[in-house]
């Protein structure tokens, strides 16, 4: 990999996980396989929740938009890394880097927001079942999803607006497989990045508030479930709530650990692994997690796979 004139070049050099070209090829292939599997899984969820009449409730409506966010998030980071690894060049232009930051932070925030909405939906379904159709009516669901997508523009806009004012004086080497905000800020040669840190603190506080809302929802859900006399009813609730709770914990915990960890010039294997956990793994596993314990989704997927149109 050519690293000449790194300081003066207009773009950045993504170091990825290894300098060894053979390992880069292997990692690129693994990322490609993961990307294809994640894209296929999310595309199937989007398709069946759009077309199948069994999956038209608010829960599946929100799940569809979670899958759209996951699919979009995968497309932002993985293809660029696979392409640069196979081409033996980690170079990414300044514009491409800014676009990655804008879309990745936006989709990440959108995921936090939609997971919060989904937890409220489950709370209403379990704790206020008699009022569910009124509270979660189609109009309110559309407004909630619209708010999620509109709010996802805010983080990327704030980050880009502040990063544009930063001057870079260090070698523009990013020890990551995509343009991650902490790694970009590390290259700053002044205190300009403090404004961006303020943006990050603000968004972290809002995300923490969302997390508290999710926790409160599930405290009420589980306290209600444990009072249910029927084991079948408890099992049905757990089959829809536990996958959502697992997705929330996986996404937020890995993201928080990765961003709270101080960046260094020689990142450890654990830091790289954490970055994969909050960027690639959740969008890839979400379709599987939601399908494993949800009988309705499994039935619809089997119907899709065995349909004459599909096999034909």
UniProtKB/TrEMBL annotation:
GO molecular function: G protein-coupled receptor activity; olfactory receptor activity
Membrane-spanning parts: 25-49, 101-120, 141-166, 202-225, 237-260, 272-292
Main location (coarse class): membrane
Topology in membrane: Multi-pass membrane protein
InterPro entries cross-referenced by the UniProt entry: GPCR_Rhodpsn, GPCR_Rhodpsn_7TM, Olfact_rcpt, Olfactory_GPCR
Native organism: Mus caroli (Ryukyu mouse)
Family: Belongs to the G-protein coupled receptor 1 family.
Name this polypeptide is given: Olfactory receptor
Domain G-protein coupled receptors family 1 profile: 41-290
General function of this protein: Odorant receptor.
Subcellular location: Cell membrane
GO CC terms in record: plasma membrane
CDD domains, alphabetized: 7tmA_OR14-like
Keywords: Cell membrane, G-protein coupled receptor, Membrane, Olfaction, Receptor, Sensory transduction, Transducer, Transmembrane, Transmembrane helix
Family matches, as PANTHER family: OLFACTORY RECEPTOR
Pfam families given in the database record: 7tm_4
Coiled coil: none
Gene name for this UniProt entry: LOC110284145
């Amino acid at each position: 990999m050519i690293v000449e004139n790194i300081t003066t070049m207009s773009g950045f050099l993504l170091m990825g996980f290894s300098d060894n070209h053979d390992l880069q090829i292997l990692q690129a292939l693994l990322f490609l396989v993961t990307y294809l599997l994640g894209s296929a899984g999310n595309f199937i969820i989007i398709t069946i929740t759009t077309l199948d009449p069994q999956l038209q409730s608010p829960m599946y409506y929100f799940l569809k938009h979670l899958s759209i966010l996951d699919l979009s998030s995968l497309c932002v980071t993985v293809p660029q890394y696979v392409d640069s690894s196979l081409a033996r060049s980690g170079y990414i232009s300044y514009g491409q880097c800014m676009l990655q930051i804008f879309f990745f932070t936006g989709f990440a925030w959108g995921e936090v927001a939609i997971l919060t909405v989904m937890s409220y939906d489950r709370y209403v379904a379990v704790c206020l079942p008699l009022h569910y159709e009124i509270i979660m009516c189609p109009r309110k669901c559309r407004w909630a999803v619209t708010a999620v997508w509109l709010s996802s523009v805010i983080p990327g806009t704030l980050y880009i607006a502040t990063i544009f004012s930063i001057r870079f004086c260090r070698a523009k080497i990013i020890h990551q497989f995509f343009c991650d905000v902490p790694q970009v800020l590390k290259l700053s040669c002044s205190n300009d990045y403090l404004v961006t840190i303020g943006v990050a603190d603000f968004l972290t506080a809002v995300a923490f508030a969302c997390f508290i809302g999710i926790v409160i929802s599930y405290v009420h859900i589980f306290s209600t479930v444990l009072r249910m006399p029927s084991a079948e009813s408890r099992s049905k609730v757990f089959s829809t709530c536990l996958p959502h709770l697992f997705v929330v914990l996986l996404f937020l915990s890995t993201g928080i650990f990765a961003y709270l960890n101080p960046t260094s010039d020689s990142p450890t294997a654990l830091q790289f692994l954490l970055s994969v956990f909050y960027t690639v793994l959740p969008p890839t596993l979400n379709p599987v997690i939601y399908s494993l314990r949800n009988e309705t989704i499994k039935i619809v997927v089997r119907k899709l796979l065995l349909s004459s149109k599909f096999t034909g």
